[in-house]
Amino acid sequence: MHELLRLDAVGQARAVREGQVSARELAEAAIARIEAADGELNAVVHRRFERALAEIDTIPAEAPFRGVPILLKDLGWREAGEPYSAGSNVRDEAQGVDGYGVVRLREAGFVLLGRTNTPEFGSTITTEPVAFGPTRNPYDPAYSAGGSSGGSAAAVAAGMVALATASDGGGSIRVPASLCGLVGLKPARGRVSLGPAQGEGWSGFSCPGFVSRTVRDSAAALDLVSAPCPGDPYEAPRLPGRLADEVGRDPGRLRIGFLTTHPRDDVPPVPELVEAVTGAAALLESLGHDVAPGGPPALGDGDFPRHFGAIVANNLAAQVASLGALRGKPVEMEELEPRNAAMVNSAREHSAADHILATQWVDGFRRRMAAWWSEGHDLLLMPSLGVAPFPLGWIPPDDLSIAFGRTAHVVAYTSPINATGQPAVSLPLHRNAAGLPVGVQLVAAAGREDLLVRVAAQVEAASPFEHTAMP
User: Fold this and answer.
1) Which residue in 107, 205, 241, 359 has its CB near the most CB atoms, within 10 A?
2) Is 6 exposed, middle or buried (0-12, 13-18, 19+ CB in 10 A)?
3) Which residues contact 245 (CB under 8 A, 6 or more apart)?
């Protein structure tokens, strides 16, 4: 059964269809793995094992992923009748309705085993919430699994499940994927609906997605949940076909720029990130692509972090106000973790006009970034995060000056792509001297997940990903 858990989700679905294992046996094996590994890792914060096993017999035989276990991030991905905490002590209540993405996962036959750990409201880049405690990296439990999809990433890397849901508002798919040695595909803005509970997250910065061990899993999972829903505020450009069909398709000869150091002077260079990107550039060149140093000049704009941070803080303040209205009394700042209290307080100093001006600045930034792709570039290669793998506690909960500064460095390469709404993927192509994973990021033009999947699959075939944290 251990060998079946090592299969990706596509492989597990095939094993169930071909009768190598029953759906119940596969789910029970995943449950046993969670129970064996999660005491140390703390990736799964809400378990629904009995209910999940009881639902297996109701899954239609023709469902494409019948019996494949999956975990849901406890932020977004709302599930009817289950606790929803968003990493916080402020709210822990059962949800009344499934999110559209959860509906589609159920229809596809996935077995929903529980919910994964996340920092409070997903507002930082390491998963160490006061409410549930830290999630540990399967490659070294002293290290962070990243955030805000750290619980999902740790669970997949440790072999609990082959696939878990995630979301990305500033790097929250790509950073955990990098730190846990996974594939982390951030979809284009509007590709996956946030309904019915939301129209958009963080003024369009945040989008749902997955962390996985293979490109084909990320492609197939995104196919399942990618469809506009009634009332969505916008939708991504239509893809030419299924992303799963792009796996193995020749991407042609592409023009790829790469950055080994950030164009902003306030982001210090990191040797192991330079090594990771340099190695990936050489691999892409060996595959026949035109690879040269360079990237969008706008990426170096020193005003970006201020505007991005203000918009995120404003959205967090609105979320906290909504929680207060939902429970019938305002949320006191003492109920929040210090980081989030500080962000809410800073947002209260912004006017509505300030918020609109910040979003208008980002509109211009998005156009300046897009110009680089419109000038003939296909992909941008750069680090998935701006620092080396870091230990738990490195982003301190109480020294906010250090915490915010370090967080800004971590997301220096990812948050601009949330602002532009472009798709990006982190690939596990490097390990540092301590054996910890270091990912590299590929960014495509707006709406071009198809190109990302083609190239990512080509890279995976040429340099297969190793997942040594699994038993």
Assistant:
1) 205
2) middle
3) none
Question: Quick check: 159 and 470 in contact, CB under 8 A?
Answer: yes
pLDDT in tens, 251-281: 999 999 999 999 999 999 999 999 999 999 9
Nearest to 337 by CA among 411, 277, 397: 397
In sign, the C-alpha dihedral spanning 388, 390, 394, 400 is positive
Distance of CA 295 to the CA centre of its chain: 23
Q: What would the mean pLDDT of 42-55 be, rounded to a whole number?
A: 98
Beta strand extents in 79-193 (DSSP E only): 83-84, 93-94, 111-116, 136-137, 140-144, 163-168, 183-186
Q: What is the mean pLDDT of the chain?
A: 96
pTM, two decimals, is 0.98
- Which residue is it, tokens 């450009």? 237
Buried b / exposed e along 106-135 (16+ C-beta atoms within 10 A): bebbbbbbbbbbbbbbbbbbbbbbebbebb
State the Cα–Cα distance between residues 237 and 51, nearest whole angstrom.
38
Contact predicate 204/446, CB 8 Å: no
What is the third-level CATH fold of 2-462?
Amidase signature (AS) enzymes (3.90.1300)
- pLDDT, position 1: 65
Provide CB contacts within 8 A for 155, sequence distance 6+.
34, 38, 41, 43, 44, 71, 116, 161, 164
For the annotated catalytic residues, the residue numbers are 73, 148, 172
Q: What is the CA radius of gyration of the chain?
A: 21
**Which DSSP symbol is given to 46?**
E
The amino acid sitting at 268 is P
Task: State how far the alpha carbon of 374 is from the alpha carbons of 188, 295, 367, 427, in Å.
Answer: 17, 12, 10, 24
d(CA 172, CA 124): 8
The predicted-structure confidence for 353-390, as pLDDT tens digits, reads as follows: 999 999 999 999 999 999 999 999 999 999 999 999 99
CA dihedral defined by 118, 121, 122, 126, rounded to 10 degrees?
A: -60
- Tell me, what DSSP letter sits at residue 2? H
pLDDT at 172: 98
CA-wise closest residue to 168 among 213, 128, 122, 134: 122
To which residue do tokens 């979301």 refer?
167
